[in-house]
TrEMBL record:
SMART domains: cNMP (SM00100), HTH_CRP (SM00419). Residues 156-220 form the HTH crp-type domain. Gene3D superfamilies: Jelly Rolls (2.60.120.10), Winged helix-like DNA-binding domain superfamily/Winged helix DNA-binding domain (1.10.10.10). Residues 20-142 form the Cyclic nucleotide-binding domain. Coiled coil: none annotated. It comes from the Bacteria. Keywords: DNA-binding, Transcription, Transcription regulation. This is Crp/Fnr family transcriptional regulator. One of its GO terms (cellular component) is cytosol. It comes from Methylocystis bryophila. PANTHER family: CRP FAMILY TRANSCRIPTIONAL REGULATORY PROTEIN, HTH-TYPE TRANSCRIPTIONAL REGULATOR ARCR. GO terms for molecular function: DNA binding; DNA-binding transcription factor activity.
Length: 232
């Protein structure tokens, strides 16, 4: 199913400076409100795609964006998410080196954002200490989380990571609305690996599998896996 593209909102929407990050000083917020274009994206819309030129710097006002990478074999991995008051480290890197996007981003929920054109981004970066501090602080924080993500995918056992993901995603009723493929994208592994581990969990009586989701029956058993008390 084709995804829609994010759209610029009508002029006058999202132009209140108080909606932007509290880490920015008032003068910088006013400059962003004046120079930035408001953007609205419905859940499921593309924010950017791999290979396209990077022309603007977005700051999320509301909603959540998922940034992911797709390999040559078609496998996908979620790199990180961008929420209110945050921005995208891949966009920052692409703007700084004048390069095309090497990943893609999708609106997980309805999203509103301020989008600063490349020329204005560079001008504010040079002239505003508040903006410069915001850009580099968010860049370094996201880089640290990406390194942690690489370590997790490279070195953590898949059963432990899957158990943690199920515990993080479970609702009050014990249900998790996620397909095997969606869980595989989150974990950076093959769908077949996730399906095999879920079957192991089900045979142990810890979960119940159903079409399009999972139900937790024994969350304590999964917590024992996460805390390395049960090996697999």
């Amino acid at each position: 199913m084709a995804r829609a593209e994010a759209k610029l909102a009508r002029i006058g929407e999202l132009d209140e400076p108080h909606l932007l990050s509290p880490a920015l000083d008032e003068a910088t917020k006013a400059a962003l409100a004046r120079r930035g274009a408001p953007l609205r994206a419905a859940a499921g819309a593309w924010i950017f795609r791999q290979g396209l030129p990077c022309e603007a710097y977005p700051i999320v006002v509301s909603g959540r964006i998922r940034v992911q990478k797709t390999g040559a074999n078609g496998r996908e991995i979620t790199l990180y998410r961008v929420g209110p008051g945050e921005t995208c480290v891949i966009t920052t890197a692409c703007l700084m080196r004048d390069a095309a996007y090497d990943a893609e981003a999708i609106a997980e929920t309805d999203v509103t954002a301020k989008v600063l054109p490349k020329a204005d981004f560079r001008e504010l970066l040079a002239s505003s200490a508040s903006f410069r501090d915001f850009v580099f602080r968010t860049f370094s924080a996201r880089l640290a989380s990406l390194l942690a993500r690489i370590e997790e995918v490279a070195f953590e056992r898949i059963d432990r990571r899957l158990a943690q993901r199920l515990l993080d995603a479970v609702g009050e009723d014990g249900a998790i609305a996620a397909t095997h493929r969606e869980l595989a994208v989150e974990l950076g592994t093959a769908r077949e690996v996730v399906s095999r581990k879920l079957k192991d969990f089900e045979r142990s009586g810890w979960i119940e599998l159903h079409r399009g989701g999972v139900r937790l029956l024994q969350p304590e058993a999964l917590r024992r896996i996460v805390h390395d008390e049960a090996a697999s």
